[in-house]
Design goal:
Layout lengths: L6 H29 L11 E6 L3 H7 L3 H7 L4 E7 L5 H4 L5 E5 L4 H9 L3 E6 L5 H9 L2 E8 L11 E4 L6 H10 L28 E5 L14 H13 L3 E4 L6 H11 L4 E3 L6 H9 L3 E5 L2 H8 L4 E4 L5 H4 L6 E4 L29 H11 L18
Parallel strand pairs: 1-2, 1-4, 2-3, 4-5, 5-6, 7-8, 7-10, 8-9, 10-11, 11-12
Helix pairs in contact: 1-6, 2-11, 8-9, 8-13
């Protein structure tokens, strides 16, 4: 009902980039591997560069190792090399001493940006694109570490490699990069304390629940819950006395406005396109609960330990689920045709839309369980959805 336009052209562009990465990237990585001798870990480390070119959620997960690095190398500067698409991570992630924005889509400019900031160690947290491996080889670094993943052929040019496996959460895969430095990482992402001093939007005048309905990236529509389900859930929560805050990126604003109109009434506040990532973190932190599809906002809510219902369909929660203590995952498992995404692009040609299998009543029940016993919690009322 509220699908974004241009998804077909974006999908064709993504397919072309993946093909280029495979057919050009693999030979380049192999060539770099043949041309260099593997080096040992430097004794003196003054700077460590983190290659975090993925989405916001990937970068948050990668940020979990910063505290461990600072314990092991207290005098070293931690430099975040980020992409233009996820530069908002600078607003929220604590522990980065510097940041360098790398224009990944423009290879020559990307190499120049990397080489302008020499570092002693590069840690490449990208699990499958060869781009990170190539930039690691071209960086002015004394030691490079990346991930070896079966079938991706991207590990030849690193000095040391961690193992990327499909049978564990991504945080453990990224921790394996840091283990190559003799560290046993246990840290979690830390957010800047100043985030929580920001005022809420004036329209949020009573307890509210945040909805993040919109996914991003390749074939994002297959990871989105049906619009009518959001409408029904919102109307039930409004009857229970809650406001609804709709989160989203600037390009999600028109869909968010249409969704708010379908819900009806003044209790829906559309924040999509109006807030920075930092301001959104403050909104999430003060929410009664969050309902989100698998995306960066879901991971941010989990880091904040919000009461969270995470809606999964194709995405495997074992690999990419939320890490918060008060997070619950709903969605069809592998036995029901879901949870098949590992690296993020393994959609079958005839991939079915399975997100609709998640019932509105189940989401509402999860919310009530999360907030049971809290003053004014969702367990205090009886929603008409119970009769659906």
């Amino acid at each position: 009902m509220f699908r974004a336009s241009g998804s077909g052209s974006r999908e064709r562009g993504n397919n072309a980039l993946r093909a280029l990465d495979k057919w050009l990237g693999i030979p380049l990585v192999a060539l770099f591997g043949l041309m260099r001798t593997r080096r040992g870990l430097p004794q003196n480390v003054d700077s460590i560069g983190l290659f975090m070119f993925g989405a916001i959620g990937d970068s948050l997960i990668a940020g979990s190792v910063i505290a461990d690095l600072k314990l092991r190398f207290p005098a070293a500067s931690i430099v975040g090399f980020i992409s233009e698409a996820n530069r908002g991570i600078i607003q929220i992630l604590d522990g980065l001493d510097e940041s360098v924005v790398v224009p990944i889509s423009r290879p020559h400019s990307a190499v120049r940006a990397i080489r302008r900031r020499p570092v002693d160690i590069v840690l490449d947290f990208s699990p499958w694109p060869r781009t990170g491996a190539i930039l690691s080889a071209l960086a002015k670094a004394r030691y490079t570490v990346g991930l070896r993943r079966e079938g991706q052929y991207r590990h030849y040019a690193y000095d040391a490699v961690g193992e990327h496996r499909k049978d564990r959460h991504e945080i453990e895969n990224l921790r394996d990069v840091v283990r190559c430095l003799g560290i046993d990482p246990v840290g979690t992402p830390r957010l800047k304390a100043a985030l929580f001093d920001q005022p809420l939007p004036a329209e949020l005048s009573r307890p509210y629940v945040v909805f993040h309905p919109w996914a991003a990236g390749y074939r994002h529509e297959l990871r989105e819950w049906p619009d009518q389900h959001w409408v029904e859930l919102a109307q039930a929560l409004i009857r229970d006395g809650y406001q609804i805050a709709l989160s989203g990126a600037p390009h999600d604003r028109s869909r968010s406005l249409a969704l708010a109109q379908a819900v009806g009434g003044p209790a829906v506040v559309v924040l999509a396109g109006r807030t920075t990532l930092g301001a959104m973190a403050a909104v999430l932190a003060k929410a009664e609960a969050v309902v989100s599809v698998n995306t960066g906002i879901m991971h941010l809510a989990a880091v904040l330990d919000c009461p969270l219902v995470a809606l999964h369909g194709p995405t495997n929660p074992l690999r990419w689920g939320p890490l918060g203590a008060r997070s619950k995952v709903l969605g069809p498992g592998a036995e029901d045709g879901g949870a098949y995404l590992d690296l993020g692009f393994e959609y079958p040609p005839d991939a079915p839309e399975i997100m609709g299998c998640i019932a509105v009543t189940d989401v509402l029940a999860c919310l009530r369980e999360l907030l049971r016993g809290a003053a004014g919690g969702l367990s205090g009322g009886t929603s008409s959805l119970e009769a659906v």
